[in-house]
């Protein structure tokens, strides 16, 4: 069920997958792979065919085969199945790798849960000999390898849980093992790991088991360097049955990490003499079935990786480098995880996560969570808005202190809240400006937009009132509060508002889409906070909704893009530069209904393009520089996109996409030519709209998301490419 540490050298390899750059990792949705069994439960990682890529071997509890998965380097694996030839007919519950015959090739060692160890020697190309069988004990609980007698040959050790002992098989150096020798250990020994715990140069053993009362125990057997071990003393741990080793506080001593059946992991810091200190516990959701220690974020500090039973998740607890761990971060994975492992499977210099366990469907029980090695975000900070309504938000400096503030607008609440920003990305409690409840009421995607309408150096905003068919202008006082609103009647119900200088006079104007009447209203600004009467232009649909502004034909004049909910398209009106517009094109997009869109130069040609989401797709409209577009459709597996925004999240100079759905924010990274591929990264929680800015001045883009009742702030962390 549980993959263990192989040998001291392989342990170091696992712990140092990540190199020097620092980041908090994000992982893509799992990529699933088949197996010879619907119940695989152990795994080992190593380069089996000498191509420099980590390959995978998976054991099982359902049949007598192992799966050997050779890595093709692009997230694809070629799988071959091998029988372990168990005389008892039991499945290979444990699997490890090691070079047993000094040919420089990793061989496979397995054990079943009754009485057999199998050895499969590697031909060097990732294929293996027929299994050779060795008798062990009546019930084998764990398996590890290492050079226990220091003769240069790899040995094996298994736990015999029925007799409370270990059995050591010394290696002959030619791929064969000597008959096993038994040594008394802790009661009900179930798991074992090998490492030098007391710095004497000899490999020691850490074991975990259970006594006759099913109370969990752990013990240490110090190695003598000749293949024998000193008698273990056991310490009760109550309900802890999973173990891992790593140096969490950087003192050079290995620490003990235990998974507990009561939904937490415990850390016992090593004293460097084979003993461990008192435990510190950290909660996880679900019963830990596997524990792994590795540096996942490249900061030189060991992190803890936990797979849980019925949790359907992998939990990462990032280390602080002083022996303590941060709160867990959740990543979706197959349910009932039996094994987790770490390696850079795709060669991008970033640690990926291998998970093995039961899945639905059961034909795909192996998954890899590939690290994005790009843009990630810290856990969200929720800003309470004292409302039960859906919250929309936008950004701006509303008190002129040079720091980005957040304006939130609870749907139909008649209030505007401002959270003034601090320079570190944190926010003060909101300042509320209350209006009559019917003054601003909007169900559109973009109900408010900002600008300095009276050119006094203080930021103002315009909101839509789709109950009374008004556009509402609210002037700011420069301290986070606002003056009483001014209403401008419209010819129909507004759906969205945008602010820009459409006639080139240096004054901000308004563009508003009007449903049912099918027009775009342009209100030219007077520069004193007031606006002229609306000028209406046909939107070429009776249901225009979202509205965006950009120069799509590169003539230096601002144009409009409007989503057409009725005809599943985006209509483009080209600007004449005097505040008037004419129809240019209708572009099919947003299959099912255009749900959200964003504008940016996606293909690097210097002209803005349009990204539009539909019910289950992403439409990319690449500008032809004449007001028409070329369409590219990208399939998405989502619960429905509610908002979209663009920004360079990975620092490569290309416009990426942030898409909000019900439960997640999806980040799609752009290769610079408008290809987003399968680089899909999820960060909870979901949102109704997205705003992007560098909130804390660290040069990394952050997200501000309006959610059901709060505003969520997610500070960005750039995940750079790393070198080994």
Written account of the structure:
This protein is mostly beta strands and 724 residues long. The strands form 15 sheets. A 4-stranded antiparallel beta sheet has the order 1-28-27-26, with no helix packed on it. Strands 2-3-4-5 form a 4-stranded antiparallel beta sheet, with no helix packed on it. It is elongated and about 95 Å long. The two termini are 31 Å apart. Mean pLDDT is 80; it is low at 1-25, 359-364, 441-445 and 718-724.
Overall radius of gyration = 31 Å
How many E strands?
58
Order of strands in the sheet with most strands: 1-28-27-26
How many distinct helices? Answer: 1
Largest sheet: 4 strands, antiparallel
Q: Low-confidence segments, ≥5 residues, pLDDT <50?
A: 1-25, 359-364, 441-445, 718-724
Supply the helix-strand structural class. Answer: mainly beta
Beta content: over 45%
Structure in a nutshell:
This protein has 1 helix and 58 strands. It has a 4-stranded antiparallel β-sheet with strand order 1-28-27-26, with no helix packed on it. Strands 2-3-4-5 form a 4-stranded antiparallel β-sheet, with no helix packed on it. A 4-stranded antiparallel β-sheet has the order 6-7-8-9, with no helix packed on it.
Defining traits:
disordered C terminus; four-stranded antiparallel beta sheet; disordered N terminus; 724 residues; mainly beta
List the helices and strands and how they pair.
Elements: H1 8-15, E1 31-33, E2 40-46, E3 55-60, E4 65-71, E5 77-83, E6 92-98, E7 107-112, E8 116-120, E9 132-135, E10 140-146, E11 155-160, E12 165-169, E13 181-184, E14 191-195, E15 204-210, E16 216-221, E17 233-238, E18 240-246, E19 255-260, E20 264-270, E21 276-283, E22 287-294, E23 303-309, E24 313-317, E25 329-332, E26 337-343, E27 352-357, E28 366-369, E29 375-377, E30 381-384, E31 391-396, E32 405-410, E33 415-419, E34 431-434, E35 448-451, E36 460-465, E37 470-474, E38 486-489, E39 493-500, E40 509-515, E41 519-523, E42 535-538, E43 544-550, E44 559-564, E45 569-575, E46 581-588, E47 596-600, E48 609-613, E49 617-623, E50 629-635, E51 643-647, E52 656-660, E53 665-668, E54 680-683, E55 689-693, E56 702-706, E57 710-714, E58 716-718
Antiparallel strand pairs: 1-28, 2-3, 3-4, 4-5, 6-7, 7-8, 8-9, 10-11, 11-12, 12-13, 14-15, 15-16, 16-17, 18-19, 19-20, 20-21, 22-23, 23-24, 24-25, 26-27, 27-28, 29-58, 30-57, 31-32, 32-33, 33-34, 35-36, 36-37, 37-38, 39-40, 40-41, 41-42, 43-44, 44-45, 45-46, 47-48, 48-49, 49-50, 51-52, 52-53, ...
């Amino acid at each position: 069920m549980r993959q263990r540490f192989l040998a001291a050298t392989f342990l170091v390899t696992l712990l140092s997958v990540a190199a020097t750059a620092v980041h908090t990792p994000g992982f893509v949705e799992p990529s699933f792979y088949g197996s010879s069994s619907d119940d695989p439960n152990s795994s080992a990682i190593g380069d089996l065919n000498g191509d420099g890529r980590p390959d995978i071997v998976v054991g099982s509890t359902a049949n007598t085969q192992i799966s050997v998965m050779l890595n093709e380097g692009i997230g694809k694996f070629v799988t071959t199945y091998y029988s372990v030839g168990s005389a008892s007919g039991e499945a290979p519950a444990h699997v490890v790798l090691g070079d047993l015959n000094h040919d420089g090739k990793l061989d496979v060692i397995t054990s079943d849960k009754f009485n057999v160890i199998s050895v499969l020697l590697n031909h060097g190309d990732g294929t293996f000999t027929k299994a050779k069988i060795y008798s062990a004990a009546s019930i084998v609980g764990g398996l590890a390898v290492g050079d226990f007698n220091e003769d240069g040959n790899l040995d094996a050790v298994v736990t015999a849980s029925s007799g409370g002992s270990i059995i050591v098989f010394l290696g002959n150096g030619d791929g064969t093992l000597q008959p096993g020798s038994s040594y008394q250990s802790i009661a009900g020994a179930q798991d074992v790991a090998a490492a030098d715990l007391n710095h004497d140069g000899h490999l020691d053993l850490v074991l975990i088991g259970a006594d006759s009362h099913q109370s969990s125990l752990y013990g240490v057997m110090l190695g003598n360097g000749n293949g024998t071990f000193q008698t273990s003393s056991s310490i009760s741990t109550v309900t802890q049955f999973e173990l891992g080793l790593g140096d969490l506080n950087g003192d050079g001593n290995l620490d003990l990490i235990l998974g507990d059946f009561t939904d937490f992991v415990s850390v016992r810091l090593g004293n460097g003499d084979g003993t461990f200190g008192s435990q510190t516990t950290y909660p996880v959701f679900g019963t830990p079935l596997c524990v792994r220690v590795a540096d996942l974020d490249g900061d030189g500090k060991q992190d803890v990786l936990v797979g849980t039973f019925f949790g359907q998740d992998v939990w990462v607890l990032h280390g602080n480098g002083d022996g303590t761990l941060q709160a867990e971060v959740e990543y979706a994975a197959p349910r009932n995880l039996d094994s987790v492992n770490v390696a850079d499977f795709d060669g991008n210099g970033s640690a990926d996560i291998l998970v093995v366990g039961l899945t639905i469907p059961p034909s795909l029980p192996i998954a890899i969570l590939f690290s994005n090695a790009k843009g990630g975000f810290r856990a969200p900070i929720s800003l309470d808005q004292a409302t039960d309504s859906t919250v929309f938000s936008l950004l701006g400096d509303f008190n002129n202190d040079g720091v980005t503030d957040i304006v939130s607008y609870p749907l139909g609440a008649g209030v505007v809240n401002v959270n003034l920003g601090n320079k570190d990305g944190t926010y003060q409690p909101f300042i509320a400006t209350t209006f009559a409840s019917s003054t601003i009421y909007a169900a559109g995607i973009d109900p408010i937009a900002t600008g300095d309408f009276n050119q006094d150096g203080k930021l103002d905003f315009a909101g839509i009132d789709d109950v009374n068919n008004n556009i509402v202008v609210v002037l700011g006082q420069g301290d986070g509060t606002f003056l009483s609103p001014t209403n401008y009647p419209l010819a129909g119900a507004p759906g969205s508002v945008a602010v820009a200088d459409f006639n080139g006079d240096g004054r901000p104007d308004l563009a508003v889409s009007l449903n049912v009447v099918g027009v775009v209203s342009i209100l030219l600004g007077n520069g004193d906070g007031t606006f002229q009467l609306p000028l209406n232009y046909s939107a070429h649909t009776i249901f225009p909704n979202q509205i965006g502004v950009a120069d799509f034909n590169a003539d230096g004049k601002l144009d409009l893009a409007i989503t057409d909910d009725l005809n599943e398209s985006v209509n483009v009106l080209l600007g004449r530069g005097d505040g008037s517009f004419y129809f240019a094109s209708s572009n099919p997009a947003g299959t099912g209904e255009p749900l959200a869109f964003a504008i940016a130069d996606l293909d690097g040609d210097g002209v803005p393009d349009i990204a539009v989401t539909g019910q289950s797709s992403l439409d990319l409209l690449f500008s032809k520089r004449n007001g028409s577009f070329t369409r590219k459709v990208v399939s998405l597996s989502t619960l429905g996109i509610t908002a979209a925004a663009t920004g360079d999240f990975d620092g490569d100079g290309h416009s990426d996409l942030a898409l909000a759905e019900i439960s997640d924010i999806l980040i799609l990274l752009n290769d610079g030519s408008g290809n987003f591929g399968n680089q899909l990264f999820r960060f909870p929680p979901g949102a109704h709209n997205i705003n992007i800015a560098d909130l804390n001045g660290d040069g990394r883009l952050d997200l501000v998301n309006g959610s059901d009742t709060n505003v969520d702030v997610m500070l960005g962390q750039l995940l750079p490419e790393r070198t080994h």
